[in-house]
Records
---
Amino acid sequence: MTILIRKGHIIDPSQGIDGIGEILIEDGKIIEIILEAKRGKGQRAKGKERDSELRTVDASGLYVLPGLVDMHTHLREPGYEYKETIKSGTGAAVRGGFTTVCAMPNTNPVNDNSSVTEFIIRKAVQEGSCAVYPIGAITKLQKGEELAEIGIMCDEGCVAFSDDGRPVMNSELMKKALEYSKIFNVPIISHCEDRDLSEGGVMNSGLLSITLGLRGIPPEAEEVMVARDIALAGLTRGRLHIAHVSTEGSVRLIRLAKEAGIAVTAETCPHYFSITEAAVKGYNTNAKVNPPLRTEKDVEAIKDGLKDGIIDAIATDHAPHHRDDKLQEFDKAPFGISGIETALSLSLKLVHNGILSLSRLVEKMTLNPSTILRIDKGTLKVGADADIVIIDMKRQFRVEPDKFVSKGKNTPFEGRVLKGMPVLTICKGRVFDIA
Amino acid sequence: MTAECTFKSKDLLGIKELSKDEIALILDTASGFRDVLRRDIKKVPALRGKTAVNLFFEPSTRTRTSFELAEKRLSLDVLNLSVTTSSVVKGETLMDTALNVQALGADFMVIRHPSSGVPHLLSGNIKASVINAGDGTNEHPTQALLDAFTIMEKKGRIEGLRVAIVGDILHSRVAKSNIYLLTKFGAEVRLIGPPTLVPKRLEQLGVKTFYDMETGLKDADVIMMLRIQMERQDRGFFPSTLEYSRYWGLNMERLSLADKEAIVMHPGPMNRGLEIASDVADGPRSVILEQVTNGIAVRMAVMYLLGGVRG
């Protein structure tokens, strides 16, 4: 099938494109891109006349972007299919404008060996709506004791390694991981949390945690490990990527590391620049997330970090949970926000508020994560997979978790009115009408 | 006391959630019930035909028996459910337990739970009146109410009094509820204890913090001692109970630093010889046993008023 997207405002940071134009897609690939400013009068995309199965998409008044790339997704399969499956999770991704997701390894069994990697890839091909790249565990069973078979998992298709949710506390082992992974040219993604400092904590520590009677996780629990991992990256010259940055101090440390020329990249998530710990009030378990929601000054620092390029990417840390899991004692409820269907809209607020240009935002949600992971995604270059999202910057909607495609309805943004949303997502030429 | 003041909520979740008028109404109502408790026949038919379930997920003697007696004095039918005998040990979720209790016909659910916020969770999901009998390290509202009642009885006022609260403030729901109540009524609240248990940031609540008894107790009108929570000792907030006792234990010598008319309170159970010396606990300034008696009147008042909300 041939698809022609017309009259849309195309933004593709990978080629420096920012203007009205046409994109022609054939057999799941981008075969032509013509900008209005450059084309001769009357020139149209050449495939147009020759294919009877042509679908024309009128994108006038809309933006046409490379499909979003989420480098931090929990798809829960295998093992926790009642929370999410590869099918429902990728369906949710597409609804959120994502065409590529990276599946975190904390499944059951853990993705710490090539059979699980192979299972995820096969399942994604069979049932998935978008591209899925698995992230393998750094250590066997994510126990932080011995290295998993990083090389074999790379061969099978893992694009990065992380013990997400269960940080590698042993500094010597983390050093080995950064050292050993170099030969495969894959990043080690660090969930930075000193588990002694965070022990038993369920929210940010501060006056609010004391008055709610909840055990706190201090910002320093994250920052101590950010500092450690930066030191180890400097020592080993390995590739370090810091996951879900949530504090002012972490931004400061990463800034210093980058200035010192250490190979470190970083991501944050929409909830860390959209809301604060105040969302926990009333013991709202949907606002229980790890790292925890912080304070106003952290939110501002994260925005500054995004603006200054200290934080390279925006990831979702999509962590769907079943209603029963969240309808529990705050202490017992699991951490996590189902975020993949609100991530783009929440991030567009940065554009509406003048913190990032749309092009810079798109870079952080497409090109940068693809570059960090060295995958051929996040671009509209001729020959690339036809992964595209068309968004309406002006359209407003109310967040209604019951309408999520994800099985996880756990969001602290319920009822919020957001501006800007995807209206059509194309994954390798497959068209999904969203709204 | 405004006669028009009524309860807004069907539940008693914490002192934080109450207005000054609501607290005054409870204390005023408790005063009436205190008189009832002095009579020969101590029972009133106020809530006859209604059912109260005491749902205790944590060991408790004082609070549970106090609630039970308050309920019986109000002619409620009473059911006691404790965690060791319930199906919680079989893996039932908290919500299912609560819904089952509701299905049994409970009008009042008195809950104690080791996790903060459990009464709030139940409040939004069940129809019965939820009364917080202590949740995690959040609040213990009826304790603060009975403490306030006792202070009023002894001092005639709360405003302007110097109230020292000594011990593990960080983990004490009793201290938290008292801080909210006492600051609402204009008392000067001083928190005393080791830095690991008395976070400086609590001063944002309008209280003063002290690390030494000698300055903190000076001219105090009320001294509230908190129990050293042995169950928290494994986390090492102070090196030993001996060391704690040396710096933060209340003895006669330290008591003499307070106002001559100062009263000594303790929510119980006491660790004699650790946070409080026996001669202080049993001495003329101690109102510890009166607190216990007043607890019944205050809890009767709370249930009576919530019963009014439910109609």
---
Amino acid sequence: MRFLRRRSRKRACVVGLDGVPFGLLKTLAQRSVMPRTAAIIGEGGLKQMRASLPPVSSVSWSSFMTGANPAEHGIFGFTDVSSDTYQLRFPTFADLAVPTFWDRLGESGRRCAVINQPSTYPARSLPGALVSGFVALSLGKSVWPKEHLPALERMGYQIDVNTQKAREDLDGLLDDLDSTLETRRQAAAYFWERENWDYFQVVVTGTDRLHHFLWNAVEREDDPRHERVMGYYTAVDTFIGEMWDRFHKGGSADKEGEGFVLLSDHGFAGMRKDVRLNAWLRENGYLDYKAEEPTSVAEITPGTRAFVLDPGRVYLNVKGRFAKGCVEPEEAPALREELAGRMREMSFEGEKIISHVFTREEAFRGPKSALAPDLVLISRNGFDLKGTTKGKEVFASTHFQGMHTWGDAFVWSRLPVPDDPEIANLAGVIMEYLSG
Amino acid sequence: MAKGFTLWFTGLSGSGKSTLAEQVRDILLERGLKVEVLDGDVVRQNLSKGLGYSKEDRDINIRRIGFVCNLLTRNDVVAIAAAISPYKEIRDENRKLIGRFVEVYCKADLDTLKARDPKGLYEKALNGEIENFTGVSDPYEPPDKAEVVVDTAAEDEEASVAKIIGTLEQMGYIPAGDGRGYSEEEEESIKQRLRDLGYI
């Protein structure tokens, strides 16, 4: 009886490719670097998608897994700032203020298997199984339920590549990407068989790491590592093909491809310069530090009127909101407008840096909007906005080759994804499909 | 904001109620909550001393435990009850009385319980040496809407405890995680990871 009921249920399978832009996916598919993906997306359904604001994985994936705006789920970045001490804090999965759609599926008896999902650390219970992704620290705290831990340990499951080593050893990074993908494959095969799931999800985060360190090798055919990097993409494609085959072999899809979803959480682009927004604020008299070489915004002077957290989150130091706020609440709207106007005009060698400026009201809707930044800036490709307090120079060069972008994530699905989608739309689409 | 709630373990003798109750108590105490456990076996030696195992006496016993749980709950204490509490009607009566009530059904099949039988009670009951033994000669009405169902015949203790704690976190009855965020050491590791990718 149970078996019959299970067969008639709809199932969904989602493969996430962290940081893969719409344009790159199309190009790699067309060039036969990703032939399986090309066949899947070939008949239509691929859409460009907006990431969250700001476009970082912690926020975007939180919006994906909840279907909510950051002002509802409460995750505004990899860091938050204490309103008392201005010290940075690092939100955990426990800070997610609303249930995931996996929790909601569980309410109707559906089970999920979710592998390498960023921003779910430490792992907590959910109806099914979870393996946390970035910024997961230890495997022991990344797995729920714990009964799966020995199997993952046996397969040598890697949470992530060694990003500390990557800077010095790019070939080592490529080896690391291959082995991490292999353990992701093994984990997917394991949970596919072990979990009685209705919703299956696995995220490949190696793509994001690759783009941070080796974007030039992705874009330039004359780069010495280009072939190797394309080989990595072909391996990712093979994995996508395996997931597709598995999904169809089990008779899981009611129609051809239905219930299978590919997506990324944000796009990527090559970068020319880091843009240190706190240095710009300092240079323009909005911010100062007590220390000569500050290590965090906790060292701003009481007279500081605004500061920035990564990547482009501007906070006004308003009385009542922050312990040492100096901006009168009634003066805040004018200051915000002034900053928005001036920052919109920032330029490098005559080239404008900022493409969009969103106010808090434009970007955030929900009960936690009071915790949101006052402005969110989005830059043009090539200019990576930073909230670092280091350095007095506004523009800096680094070893990173790629930067996150906002408007060019992608989604492929035969489900009714709205036109001009944003990542928060997908939870509702998947929920509706599985509930139908 | 109310902090108290009642965590009510129900299930047959030997199904793991007391063991899980103690483990959950220890976690909640570590998180700085005030916790009291009302174990059915202990209550029958004092608060309900003299009561037998007829339906009437069982109902009185469970109502008494519910009464104490309610007092504790409304005074911001986490009350953990671990009692067979075989009748659904009385459990639901306590649920209604207390409000902030989380039912944990410790499920285990009779074969498993007979095999465990730490007190030798099933053997005696099956031999007719004990009357009114729940699950053998007395009924047990499983809950149909328990907030948590732990299958103690199939899952290990750690998984059951995680399920219970996870549910309490999801319901907002206890702070999520360990309530302290990351340790200093973990925070340093996270900072390093974020730096490695240029996120801070």
---
Amino acid sequence: MLYREAGDFKTTYAADGQTFPIAFDRWRYYGVLAVAFGVVPFLINDYWANAVFVPFLIYAIAAIGLNILTGYCGQVSLGTGGFMAVGAYACYKLMTAFPEVSILVHIVLAGGITAGVGLLFGIPSLRIKGFYLAVATLAAQFFLVWLFNKVPWFYNYSASGQISAPERTFLGVAVTGAATPAWAKYLVCLVFVVALAWVARNLTRGALGRQWMAIRDMDIAAEIIGVNPLRAKLAAFAISSFYVGIAGALLFAVYLGAVEVGEAFGINKAFLVLFMIIIGGLGSIFGSFAGAAFLVLLPVLLKNVLVGGLGWSTSLAAHIELMIVGALIVLFLIVEPHGLAQLWRLAKEKLRLWPFPH
Amino acid sequence: MSDQLLFAMEVTLNGLMAGVMYALVALGFVLIFKASGIFNFAQGVMALFAALTLVGFQTGQVPFAHLINAVFGTRIHHFGWSVPTLAAIVATMAVMVLMALLVERLVLKHFVNQAPIILFMATIGLAYFLEGLGDVMWGADIKRLDVGLPQGISETIDGTTFGWFGYGFFIDRLDIVAALVAAALVVSLTLFSQYTRQGRALRAVADDHQAALSVGISLRAIWVLVWSIAGFVALVAGMMWGTKLGVQFSLSLIALKALPVLMLGGFTSIPGAIVGGLIVGVGEKLFEFAVGPMIGGATENWFAYMLALVFLLFRPQGLFGERIIERV
Amino acid sequence: MTGQVQPAAAEAAGGDRRIGPVVMEMKNITLRFGGVTAIRDISFDIREGEIRAIIGPNGAGKSSMLNVISGFYRPQEGEVWFRGQRRPRLKPYQVARQGIARTFQNIALFEGMSVLDNIMTGRLTLMRSTILDQALWWGRAEREEVAHREKVEKIIDFLEIQHVRKTPVGRLPYGLKKRVELARALAAEPRILLLDEPMAGMNVEEKEDMCRFVLDVNDEFGTTIVLIEHDMGVVMDLSDRVVVMDYGRKIADGPPAEVRRDQAVIDAYLGVPHDG
């Protein structure tokens, strides 16, 4: 009864095109934001920040980024790990080279640098399509990881080959480094997520988003009706990489604090983010959040149940997790290729009519 | 002859041998791709799974021992017997056929007429599942695989080349066996597809699904067949690689190396898989030999992909692939 | 849909007030695929405001001809002249921006998008806001979106597809899909509209609707239309002039009444000149 659109008439095209056309959705969205900014920071502790909230927010950014490229523009990328590494290492180099500049600026710049690298690796997409392209993006994945592993300049010649984030503050509060309070980590990531999700929503509902979707659905027809495929695809690669780069920078600087490139940004990371958007929903911003939440929570849940509850070994739990994730991917692709986002939409359609379904 | 040149020759030879090993994995991809248009990302994990199963049977491991122990608090690991290699191979093959059946029944059947990229992603999911299954069934520790294949330096080649050049080439006997096996595999696959009824049906399906259906070929039976064959190829590849490196997770990464091989050779060509494998094998060994030391080494990690990437920019259909004509 | 009527058109055309000077001319076009010659040395012109039909048996090269006009295929020989200038080698999207829109023989809609979004893609060539505008959605991007939405709504009204406005295209029946495709092409406010078998696979009623739309578009907006069609009745009723192709060659060119009496045309259609 609460959830309805009857009586909610749109009198302008602007109102009809808004993000949440139904009033109840709009209010719920403001409610979520209010809780996220006004309540969670006061309750959060280290466990919840590190196990759930911070990784969820960071992977949501990466998933939105990959969703722009794969879900909206139809170009499958297996190079996400490599691009996240670019963001992380760019952020590290900037942090250590210009300690006086704000860390937030560095994170955005790291995204920009990643966008440039993404643009470069996006050039082949003009000639290579489908899974040929997916395989070609593996070149980015393996080359970039190798590069950060083998060229000492990138890790400032540190003996361990690792990079670790020095402490940087924002408004007097540490946001990187060991002394960072849980709520500060959370808030930094939250601000980025909200801003980036909003921009992604705007981009995907406008002219550029339609160009991307046109290319995704039928690239030849898209070109014939006037989409410049070079511009549209490269824009998708650059913007997607911008998001992924920021996610990489946050993962390194705010979340992990210290990373070794092969471990943190390997091929498995590329698959993880791809799985998030498949499970969450290709071509959906909400789906990016849902998928990230799902795949961040699943291991936590399994660990708590299998290891904590039943006392099984962690390695067995990890292997069972592999099986579950693999099976879920296949299941989602069979049953609901639009993922959790579509299930959510269907649920809402039902709810819209509830309690009088006829 | 100068030492450098001789050394480069030895590197090239070893590259050719490594290339054969890549081609072995790539073969499995090509078979499935030709018959069903599916790019089977799980091929490498299938090789790992096959090798794990083979070792498990050979050494009399109890399948799912870890899971059973965890659930029932038991401490079982081995049956206490060991199975002759040949019997273990046959049993493993049976498992691979069963897997083909299940994959068809549970996965492929539901993806008829889906976009290739969706199927590709589904096989990534399948790869994850199989990897987890293999670990849960047989444990994730590194296992030694011994099916009686020769290993170690080939004394004959070492001696002969020493006699010729005064410098003995180091060639692993296992690589030579792998080359012979690969050749035998290609020949028998060719004979099979040319001269048997199933082979002809397979080629018909590869050519045109609809047309094949309309003349009464069962698509689903063909898929089971082709996945079984791919399972067999995976078993062979798993035996070779498992003997070489030990049976461990990194085997599945070899599949990733087979991808650039396919991009070079074209996804639909068996000779392409072989030639592509050789190019990648020789290319990465020579590159590492010539350029590697200058830029920090370990260039094998990415060289093949970069090579394929650059190559595809100029010839998107690969060396032997069919030319792509776009229509509206 | 303003700015389409050409004042110069009326003077140049003798009898028919609609028809103006030559807007596009194909000169000695030859197109080959490997060893196969799809189009062999074909020349014809298209006049402003006319409905120009291309007919011929299957495999005659009609669709290839349309693909040459829309820049998707590049002929090995010959020239395309557009508005008095030789057209350089252009990419398809550049051709689209010159005001040439088309529909496809096998519907090429964007199946994952709604009807509205599909038609909005037709206006992409007319949108000017930058990526930054769109990212922030303030000012220009939103204003532009609304302005184009208004134009698109007019086309939706015109083609009578209001009821499916927000339906995903994949769920529509065939006849409606064809109509949405026409809407997408019209949304670009084209000077020349290329229609590749717009009535194929339709029943009589749907064909009549489509004929009416084609005539209305031509009448109201003065859009030049190039049309491939198999239904001879439709072609004879709609078109001002007809090009007949057979095996990649042009075998006749002229008004419908003249073409249907042409012996070569009759032969090409096995002696069945009408209701093919």
